[in-house]
Amino acid sequence: MQPSMFNVRVPLDGSGDVFLMNTFTDAQIVVSAEVADLLDRLAAPGPNTWTSDEREALSTLAEHGFLVDSRETDYRNLRGFFHEIRESRDELRMTVLTTLQCNFACDYCIQGDHGDYNRHAAKMSLDTAAAVADWAERRLDELGAETYVLTFFGGEPLINLPVVYYLAERMWRFCESRGIRMLVNVITNGLLLTPDVVDRLAPCGLNGVKITLDGDRETHDRMRPLRGGQGTFDRIVHNIRQVAGRCRIAIGGNFDVDTADSYPALLDFLREQEFAGSLSKVAFKPVIRERGPATPAATASKFIPLTAVTADSKPLNGACMTSAGTGVGACDSCHVVDEQMSWLREETTRRGFPTTDGVHMGPCEIHRRHAHTVGPDGSLYACPGFAGDAAQSTGHIDGRRDGPRRRAARRFDRLAAWRSCGDCAFIPVCAGGCTVAAHSELGDMDAPNCHKAALEAGVVSLAREAAARQLELVG
Amino acid sequence: MKIQVLKKGNVKVKVMESCPWLIECPPEPRR
């Protein structure tokens, strides 16, 4: 036996104890230093003799996956894990982009109410929605899926309410007739979210609504204004008040190095609201803005997720991504973002809001064969981040499979950036990072997008929570 | 030899409910 490569450990302050997690089995334990030493002895070359206490401890460690027969066992487990995710037929997941139009004019997003964008941006017709439902029904029957997850996204999905209602209601009737559990999610900017919308979707399995607030009132209004520059914060908060208690509400937000400082004020504000207790999740994600005069190349990808740029707006060409599996050599900007993510997570937790733990960051839906993003014209994509780029369409609801779509489908089918991550302990909860970020910056979706420092910070937070729980138990 | 189990090991397929990395609004892809 030997220690699993998916073990991560954090020494706990004061007690000498050690927090151990196995990212493959998700086991989390606190052990005394002598147990942690056992793992070190096991990893060292040469024969070992064990006392009965030590044998018992090793048996417990093995039971939770901290010990494996060989490194090959770890890799075999990993391959099986990703295969199971890719091929699972338990769920059909569909993210439907009802429109690429948006009623906001966020300056960090090319989509939206800028210039004549909305005049040309696609919007799903009811005819297409009917074809989408036909396709979804066939897929559900073919898969024998137990669960159907329908997420409305855009653009701003609530701009196209007729399609939202049509798809939700028709698919609900179908799922009921087949005994399939159906969940509906809406990712919205919140401006058009009313009790009427929630009440209409509630009988169709409405699972939750995710609303974006980009910082405190002043910052949000600067980041997410209407076309005329009017703020949207007050209206969104008003809408949240109106629907609170009728459905689960999650708050998301997009921060950059300039706006992160405003988030504690947003959290304080949310904490004071009557609906605070009904927020199912509060989690913020980074967006890194271009700085200075944009170059033509940078303008083409103005909206860069998780991608650092230099002061003169030159993308760093994935410098931070070359550190896959090592956790060293990450660029300074990425390091700052990782730190800010950890800091905001702690600020969120401190105010009592449920949030992500910073460790379980994957695998995302792109690794599932039966998860699809459906564009307004019925084109299929592996992830919303690729929607709108015809070269990345993997198929179409009408069944067409031209050469480019076939090639794209094969590309996404083979997707496994984690294979380049060596023996990184975080592969099971990261899967090589965000494919869209890797594609946007490196032009190589097969390259890992490493934010190991953020994952490590997440484990430290988990360890701190474990230590706090221990103190409570002792107290 | 102290081992306090906070969470038992349980290998099952875990897939994120929503994208953990990207911001909510989809990026304009490279064309």
Please explain how this structure is put together.
The complex is a heterodimer of chains A (475) and B (31). Chain A is of the alpha/beta class. Chain A has two domains: 68 residues, no CATH class; 281 residues, Aldolase class I (TIM Barrel). Chain A is 39% helix and 16% strand. In chain A, helix 5 runs parallel beside helix 6 and helix 12 runs parallel beside helix 16. The longest helix of chain A is centred in the last third of the chain and has 23 residues. The relative contact order of chain A is 0.11. About 9% of the residues of chain A have low confidence. With 31 residues, chain B is mainly β. Chain B starts with a strand and ends in a 24-residue tail after the last strand. Strand 4 of chain A pairs antiparallel with strand 1 of chain B, so a sheet runs across the interface.
The protein's oligomeric status is: heterodimer
Low confidence ranges of chain B: 23-31
Total of DSSP H or I helical runs spanning 4+ residues of chain A: 16
For the record, the CATH architecture of the largest domain in chain A stands as Alpha-Beta Barrel
Q: How far apart are the first and last residues' alpha carbons of chain B, in Å?
A: 59 Å
Structural class of chain A: alpha/beta
Largest β-sheet summary of chain B: none
**Beta-strand proportion of chain B:** 15-25%
Protein chain pair with the most extensive contact, residues per chain = A-B, 81 and 29 residues
- Write out the strand line-up for the largest beta sheet of chain A, numbering strands in chain order: 12-11-10-9-8-7-6-13-14-15
Helix content of chain B: under 10%
Query: What structural class results from the helix and strand content of chain B?
Result: mainly beta
Mean pLDDT of chain B: 62
